[in-house]
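Re: the request from the purification team.
They wanted to know what the chain is likely to look like in 3D before they choose a buffer screen. I agreed to run a prediction and write the result into the notebook, where they can find it.
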Amino acid sequence: MRNTKIICTIGPRTASFEMLKQLTEHGMNVARLNMSHGSHEWHRTVIHHLKRLNKKLGGAVAILLDTKGPEVRTGDVSRDVVLKKGEQLVLTVRRQAELEANTVEVSYDGFVNEVEVDDTVLIDGGMISLKVRRIADKDIYCECLDDAVLTSRRHVNIRGKSADLPSITDKDWQDIKFGIENGVDFIALSFVRTADSISELRQYLQGENASIDILAKIESAEAVPHLDEIIARSDGIMIARGDLGAELPFEEVPLLQEEIVGKCRAAGKPVIVATHMLESMIVNPTPTRAEVTDITQAVLQGADATMLSGETATGKHPLKALAAMNTVARRIERKLGLDTKVRVPASENPKYEIARSASILNNNLHGSAILVFTRRGLMAMLLSRCRPGAPIYAFTNTTHVRRRLGIFWGVYPFLIKFSKDPEASIKRAIDKLLDRQLLMAGDRVIVVSDILVDGKFVETVQVRII
């Protein structure tokens, strides 16, 4: 079993029913749809496959729709542009069919007004570094700082700046509507700069009566001063380290990752570490030792999930990449053992105190598992925040809640029918765990459930021997 969840980006390599089935069987918890690529029809087919798989395998793979966001990209090039150090590359906002040699289009018309001489422009997450030497009308004349190769539609950043684009673009709204219509579980909002865009999306989802969690992607320098408010208003955070490392000095990214993970854990919000985790496995069948250490660090910090991007979307070895991430996470968690327990502060929130008490009780009694019964998922989320030293088996009667819980650290969600008598539900849940050999006779478990007292439901924390 693995406490740290894995998100896989679905792309041409993994969009078939058979490949999605294999990803599910190899440990994928959440499937990410990157709306920067693919048509709605393509994504609709993937969603259909995932829903079929969940039904066929009895699984609970959640669907995460990742918006394109207000990004700046280079245009299409007919062939790869080979750049040499010291050469000139012209970025242009001219819209014409043919451009001069070593001239590439950028997608944002206002880019020419925001860049300044001596700015550093980074393309493709910093794989190409340019120094702005001159600006003339609609052209930006840059010097290449290193040898590089430019391909089509690469992301463009200005070091230390964010483009003055709308927080949620027209395309994003179309994609969000598509996500609502097709029943996605999460929306990852790209290039969040302040909490206002979270509130704007939340209001829209409520107006559409859509029960979809909002994950704020931290990938711009402008978001950093607003972290606390963004975390407070969102349902979770994705640390998109690629673009973040392009806008900030790269040596700051590990420190910021640790800070964000810590803030999210303190707030009880799920946090995802993403981008470049197994980048070399897009081509190679085994990870670099540095990549193994990167996954290890995310697990040690207590991230709820780690994410694969190009590794599973377009890479040559998607299943091996997933297997590598799964293996590393499980090995580190085994080493940690009960050291994953954390001290959680007291609170005046009754439900949180119930979760905290259950976690402490489990750890002190060396329980085999915590069983929680939840209609909306809240109690399971609170238990995850406490990071107990045993698996959290969450039982719910709602398929959407079951899928949503799959992103939380240490939570293993199950779907059951609730009885009017809570004791009958508890027995049904224990039987299910015994059938799957997740519990054995003699195990000590903690049960968080309602009980009937004088005709009223009362929340309890129980110790039981199976």
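For the purification team: The chain has 15 helices and 21 strands.
Please add any questions underneath this entry.
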